[in-house]
Write a structure and sequence with these properties.
This protein has 22 helices and 26 strands. The chain is of the alpha/beta class. The strands form 7 sheets. A 7-stranded mixed beta sheet has the order 5-4-16-15-14-6-7, sandwiched between helices.
Length: 658
């Protein structure tokens, strides 16, 4: 059916005298694409006998080669098979069910392989709660072939054998007896890993385990634990919601692990003339805000008051237009009853608690099967950071985290160099591994064994789809050896699962084939191995720190780069942001009103590209210089947005360093 609607495309259209806008109205590109230069002259192409299929293959390869010019081929020798060649039919794909669990993204996936090589990642449809299979998960297959991966263990920057590595670690751990040593790891969400860490800490009582989530959900975890007695994140089924009110939570993006878009989409399909109503109060323009029925820009301080008002409290200091929207949302929530839900992304325990109390007893939130994909405690992590800087922490073992890059401030790097004992398990020689005295080279998840419990009661297995390309070893295999718990991590998992998860009659082969098992088995979790206390209020200045100065700085993660683990992946670097349509670099988002007051501008130049101003961003004693400015319609006045995951240098191709 034809439509006469005119869709607004850019801020430039507000300038009635723009020649660029006039040009783009007539042509998709302001300048002709130089295909003759790239592919050859027209006469040669016309006389060629190349088929259309070969031509498309040539174009596809050439454009890919142009995009990936910075990425040399990482594999020189032939890649060995996981299964014997006589089980492989050339041209016929094999599929393996496995799980991605890298500390930021968690997903049950199905891996497509051809001739023993992983080539594509898809969702495992057998997993009812399989996490978020997002752009980063799909692109993770390319990261396996990264030329900058570590190819073996190191001591003081020199390559060593794993035998030497084990000997040095044992010697160092004995020397560190009685001294404070911290095992700082990502959230594994792995029952077997938690059990092995318990054994390791029992063998070395001076070691304490601390979980570090680079993008923390600590306040939400504390609120849930205070309320329900279990550390986890509330799980939501938005397909059951009649009214959704989100305050600073991009639940269609990376909020609390993401993966909520499918349920949300179901609720947005009209049934009997009704569909869910969605209100969004936020600072940055997000995917959730772009899909909302009603979207209201608001600063973090205003969002705290909005949460109070929505949950029956008294709000103060809200502008009239925001208060009007809050009253309408409250009326809709009251009408929806148990089918209404309030969620928030504020890093504030009190606000998170109010939201949980509002949702308790409703149909949308399920507190009995929380998500276990984030377990970090901000207060504990800050204690580790301060302990290293003060000298009270003498040794640091890091696994799957990069604190030299991601910790705030400037003093940690120098303190890390002066530690008596530093050991980093990493897939690449990142900022932390490059400074560590010992480095354990870990394999890609597509080369690994493991298990996971992403949601309470739902277990999954991690299995290799290819043999390790390099001389790597899993952290868990090291723990198995160091704690005398058998010959291999694979045997350890199989035995543990037989005694716990598979007691309902499901065979190991069936579990490995399906990738997921539903069981009420009680097993160790990350919260069992990591100490610390929960907070009843936010005392780490997470809110107050962002509210000093002229603007509130809103940090967020992009669909492409996330927390920056895959910053060397060109597929993700060149992926246009779904909101701003930019790629390859970071930038500050600012409202048009604030930009006008500061004299900042964006303008389209002759070739249609966007040019504009630069600013310096300063918070406390850290200053980021010459950050491009992007004027973002919908940005709350008085706030600026800046994405996490950028600025890495170590183990990153020079062409992709930002």
């Amino acid at each position: 059916m034809a439509s006469n609607k005119k869709y607004w495309k850019s801020v430039e259209e507000l300038n009635e005298n723009s020649s660029i806008v006039e040009t783009l109205k007539q042509n998709e590109f302001t300048e002709p694409i130089p295909t003759d230069t790239f592919l050859g002259d027209k006469d040669s192409l016309a006389a060629s006998s190349t088929t259309r299929r070969d031509f498309l293959k040539y174009v596809g390869f050439s454009t890919a080669a142009a995009s990936l010019a910075a990425c040399e081929g990482p594999v020189i020798k032939s890649i060995p098979y996981v299964v014997a060649p006589d089980e492989i039919v050339p041209g016929v794909a094999n599929y393996y069910a496995t799980t991605l669990s890298d500390g930021f993204d968690f997903a049950n996936v199905l891996v497509k392989t051809r001739e023993g090589r992983p080539i594509k990642i898809d969702r495992n449809d057998l997993a009812q709660s399989g996490g978020s299979v997002n752009a980063r998960v799909h692109a993770s297959v390319l990261s396996m072939y990264d030329a900058n991966r570590l190819q073996g263990p190191k001591e003081d920057g020199n390559d060593i054998s794993w035998e030497r590595f084990d000997t040095v670690v044992a010697q160092k751990m004995n020397e560190m007896s009685g001294k404070d040593v911290v095992l700082l790891t990502q959230t594994f969400a792995s029952p077997s890993t938690s059990k092995l860490i318990e054994a390791f800490v029992a063998k070395y009582p001076n070691v304490r385990h601390v979980i570090y989530d680079t993008v923390s959900s600590s306040e939400a975890l504390d609120a849930f634990q205070n309320k329900f007695g279990t550390r986890g994140l509330a799980n939501y089924d938005f397909s059951k919601a009649e009214v959704i009110v989100s305050v600073g939570a991009d639940f269609l993006g990376d909020w609390q692990g993401g993966g909520y878009e499918a349920g949300y989409a179901k609720g947005r399909i009209p049934k009997n003339g009704k569909m869910s109503k969605h209100y969004q109060f936020e600072s940055n323009m997000t995917l959730s805000g772009a899909n909302a029925d009603v979207r209201i820009p608001a600063t973090p301080a205003q969002q705290k008051e909005i949460v109070k008002a929505l949950t029956g409290g008294n709000a103060s200091g809200l502008p009239e237009h925001i208060m009007e929207a809050v009253n309408k949302a409250s009326a809709q929530l009251k009408k929806a009853g148990s089918n209404g839900v309030v969620i928030t992304g504020l890093p504030d325990v009190a606000s998170q608690t109010l939201a949980l109390e509002c949702n308790e007893g409703g149909t949308v939130m399920d507190p009995t099967s929380p998500r276990l994909t984030a377990m970090g405690s901000t207060s504990e992590v800050m204690n580790v950071m301060n302990g290293v800087m003060s000298g009270s922490v003498k040794g640091l073992i890091t696994v799957g985290v990069n604190p030299v890059y991601s910790f705030p401030g400037t003093g940690f790097e120098e303190a890390y160099k002066n530690l008596e004992f530093s050991l980093a398990f990493a897939i690449r020689e990142d900022e932390t591994a490059s400074l560590a005295k010992l480095v354990g080279a870990t394999p890609h998840y597509l080369e690994s064994w493991g298990d996971a419990q992403l949601q309470k009661g739902t277990f999954s297995l991690i299995q290799p789809t290819i043999r390790p390309l390099f001389n790597t070893r899993q952290f868990q295999d090291c723990l198995v050896q160091w704690t005398n718990n058998g010959d291999s991590y694979y045997d350890y998992i199989k035995t543990m699962w037989s005694d716990t998860v598979l007691t309902n009659g499901i065979s190991w082969s069936k579990a490995l084939h399906d990738g997921v098992v539903v069981s009420d088995a009680e097993v160790s979790t990350d919260s069992n191995t990591a100490g610390g206390t929960t907070e009843s209020s936010t005392s780490n200045s997470a809110m107050a720190g962002s509210m000093q100065g002229a603007f509130d700085l809103i940090l967020y993660t992009k669909t492409g780069l996330g927390d920056g683990q895959q910053a060397n992946n060109p597929w993700l670097q060149e992926l246009p942001d779904p909101i701003t349509r930019t790629s390859w670099d970071n930038y500050v988002t600012i409202s048009a009103a604030d930009a006008a007051e500061l004299g900042l501008e964006n303008k389209n130049v002759a070739n249609g590209a966007l040019n504009g101003s630069y600013v310096n961003v300063r918070m406390d004693d850290v200053t980021i210089e010459r950050v491009p400015v992007l004027i973002q319609p919908g940005q709350a006045k008085g706030t600026v947005g800046l994405a996490l995951g950028y600025g890495r240098k170590a183990a990153i191709q020079s062409e992709m360093q930002t």
